[in-house]
Amino acid sequence: MIPGGLDEALVEAAQAGSTSAFTRLVERHQQAVRAFLRRTCGDWAQADDLAQETFLAAWSQLGRLEAGASVRAWLCGIGYNKHLTALRSAGRSRARERAYEAEKPPSSAAMTDERLTLEAAMAELPPDQRACVALCLAADFSHQEAADALGLPVGTVKSHVTRGRQRLLQALGGPDDGR
Amino acid sequence: MTDADARLKALFAEDEPPARDPVFATAVMQEIARRRFVLDVAFLSAGTLLGALVLWALWPVLGPLLKQMSASLAPLAGCGTLAVAALMLVDRNLGTAFAPKSGMALNHD
Known about the structure:
The complex is a heterodimer.
Chain A: H1 4-15, H2 19-41, H3 44-61, H4 71-92, H5 94-103, H6 113-124, H7 127-138, H8 143-150, H9 154-172
Helix pairs in contact in A: 1-2, 2-3, 2-4, 2-7, 3-4, 4-8, 6-9, 7-8, 7-9, 8-9
Chain B: H1 3-12, H2 22-98
């Protein structure tokens, strides 16, 4: 659990111009942001590039962060928008890149079969659903926090998580407990 | 949390980046420092350009005025320069005398 009080103090100091406070924020949230982007992108290198762009955007938009808001959700929201922008621009050259993607080795050499199946199933999900699953099932975000981060209604997040979870469990061949 | 959720969470955890990654944090802060530098240079360049333009525009008025005043202002300017130089020297000596000893430096931003 991330202590919000420390985040608030760091954000306040960073807004006042403290570089070391912003460095602490990067150190504290890099894992959550990178993990989220890895799960939504599937490509680890691109995810890390997007995470870096996310923190750069956060640095310039820090003044807009409201007091008491979740820094983790805010950063993931910026990262998600960066991912959507990258998806849109990639869509134009998708046909050209598909052949390259097919030949590319997987991001992690030591992936288990189950892990590969999960990754393939995640790639099949629509971007919104994938992002909801990545936040709520993998990163313990509440539905409300995920809705705030992604700019979606809470009901939509809930249905995305339920459907996404069902599809992932089906792909993994496990028993679906009907939730 | 059901078994299915725990299984999904365990599989997701396999692609978790390290909790501490100084290389990533350093790369981000380097890029921020680079952008800040570019912004500072742009701001200073714009200020300098603006100053030069104002000076150029006002020169027909300022030029003759400065020429008139230069004779009377020269001794005053000399005294002022000497005073500023003396103050800087005194300040530097005081700064050295009261500077924290090695290992006692404060951690400033």
